[in-house]
């Protein structure tokens, strides 16, 4: 087999997977609607004008509508006070048409992120960032699970079936990805190592990984010879770098071409984890809606 073929067979198509998840969500939403007259609603709150965030929020709003759910968008100026933001969240918490609430991060510096996340009703916390959901996940209870790690887990289960007993290495320990990812892998009976910027001999740690999840935000940091042959590699990094002709290009945290020659499977950037994150946001909104109404949750969409 030549290198090109090897690369292609190793690629995990997150974009196609996400489209499947959205179809599954849309089917369930249609059923909720026809049988119970319920339409799941997702509120997205964006504070300030960050171009990348606006693209993301726009994509998400479109996909929310495409799956038959209602999207509520709240775009607030960068100068919005914390009190005003908290007042909006109180209204959304009380609104029965809103089943999911997402406050786009990062927030402007004058706003206390932890206070804002704590103000979201945990039952509507489709990002899974409220400490109540973090604690439920950490103790193996039913939670709303952060979208990016949930999407990674879905791809891993799809590729590998059971994850039991596998060595999983998570590089990065953020509250958004690394930590919840480690909890999910532990729950699926992996032996989990969490590595980070202070870890000694990161290359050697990575070489022991049957599953390698990287979420550090450093373009191409993970080299091909750090990958165990046949390993499954999930690249969470989305780094915009300068390309030729003054253009920009998206790359992950893993040196894709080199890693793809060694890995059993690997997610590309773009077209890997990113689309799955949005699909999982939609599935979390559906899950929150089902729980709010005491109705059965969709199969295969929750961790
Ligand atoms: N409360 C909160 N929850 C989030 O989930 C959240 C957030 N804040 N703040 C920003 C980050 C970023 N994020 C992305 C989701 C999808 C893509 C995505 O679909 N990326 C495409 C490429 C898109 C492009 O071309 O720019 C891909 O990887 O194929 C990217 C980034 C969610 N975030
Ligand atoms: Mg880190």
Automatic annotation (TrEMBL):
Gene3D superfamilies tied to this protein: Leucine Dehydrogenase, chain A, domain 1, NAD(P)-binding Rossmann-like Domain
Pathway: One-carbon metabolism; tetrahydrofolate interconversion
CDD domains noted in UniProt: NAD_bind_m-THF_DH_Cyclohyd
Keyword tRNA-binding: no
Cross-referenced InterPro entries: Aminoacid_DH-like_N_sf, NAD(P)-bd_dom_sf, THF_DH/CycHdrlase, THF_DH/CycHdrlase_cat_dom, THF_DH/CycHdrlase_CS, THF_DH/CycHdrlase_NAD-bd_dom
Pfam families assigned: THF_DHG_CYH (PF00763), THF_DHG_CYH_C (PF02882)
BP terms from Gene Ontology: L-histidine biosynthetic process; methionine biosynthetic process; purine nucleotide biosynthetic process; tetrahydrofolate interconversion
Molecular-function GO term, any one: methylenetetrahydrofolate dehydrogenase (NADP+) activity
GO cellular component, one term: cytosol
Keywords for this protein: Amino-acid biosynthesis, Histidine biosynthesis, Hydrolase, Methionine biosynthesis, Multifunctional enzyme, NADP, One-carbon metabolism, Oxidoreductase, Purine biosynthesis
Reaction(s) the record says it catalyses: (6R)-5,10-methylene-5,6,7,8-tetrahydrofolate + NADP(+) = (6R)-5,10-methenyltetrahydrofolate + NADPH; (6R)-5,10-methenyltetrahydrofolate + H2O = (6R)-10-formyltetrahydrofolate + H(+)
Bilayer-spanning residue ranges: none
Keyword Amino-acid biosynthesis recorded: yes
Biological role: Catalyzes the oxidation of 5,10-methylenetetrahydrofolate to 5,10-methenyltetrahydrofolate and then the hydrolysis of 5,10-methenyltetrahydrofolate to 10-formyltetrahydrofolate.
UniProt record similarity statement: Belongs to the tetrahydrofolate dehydrogenase/cyclohydrolase family.
Subunit structure: Homodimer.
HAMAP family in the cross-refs: THF_DHG_CYH
Record's protein name: Bifunctional protein FolD
Lineage: Bacteria, Pseudomonadati, Pseudomonadota, Alphaproteobacteria, Rhodobacterales
């Amino acid at each position: 087999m030549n290198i090109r073929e090897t690369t292609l067979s190793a690629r995990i198509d997150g974009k196609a997977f996400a489209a499947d998840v959205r179809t599954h969500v849309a089917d369930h939403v249609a059923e909720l609607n026809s049988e119970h007259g319920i339409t799941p609603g997702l509120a997205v709150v964006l504070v300030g004008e960050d171009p990348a965030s606006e693209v993301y929020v726009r994509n998400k709003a479109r996909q929310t509508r495409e799956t038959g759910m209602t999207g509520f968008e709240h775009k607030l100026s960068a100068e919005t006070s914390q009190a005003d933001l908290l007042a909006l969240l109180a209204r959304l918490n009380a609104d029965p048409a809103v089943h999911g609430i997402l406050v786009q991060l990062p927030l402007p510096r004058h706003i206390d992120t932890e206070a804002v996340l704590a103000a979201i009703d945990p039952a509507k916390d489709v990002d899974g960032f409220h400490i109540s959901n973090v604690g439920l996940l950490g103790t193996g209870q039913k939670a709303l699970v952060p979208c990016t790690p949930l999407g990674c887990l879905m791809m891993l289960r799809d590729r590998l079936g059971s994850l039991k007993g596998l060595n999983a290495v998570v590089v990065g320990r953020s509250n958004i990805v690394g930590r919840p990812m480690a909890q999910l892998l532990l729950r699926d009976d992996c032996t989990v190592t969490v590595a980070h910027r202070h870890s000694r001999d990161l290359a050697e740690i990575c070489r022991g990984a049957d599953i390698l999840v990287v979420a550090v935000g450093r373009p191409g940091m993970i080299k091909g010879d750090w990958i165990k042959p046949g390993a499954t590699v999930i690249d969470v990094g989305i780094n915009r770098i300068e390309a030729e002709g003054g253009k920009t290009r998206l790359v992950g945290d893993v040196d894709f071409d080199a890693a793809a020659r060694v890995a059993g499977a690997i997610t590309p950037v773009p077209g890997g984890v990113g689309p799955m994150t949005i699909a999982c946001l939609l599935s979390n909104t559906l899950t929150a809606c089902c729980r709010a109404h005491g109705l059965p949750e969709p199969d295969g969409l929750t961790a």
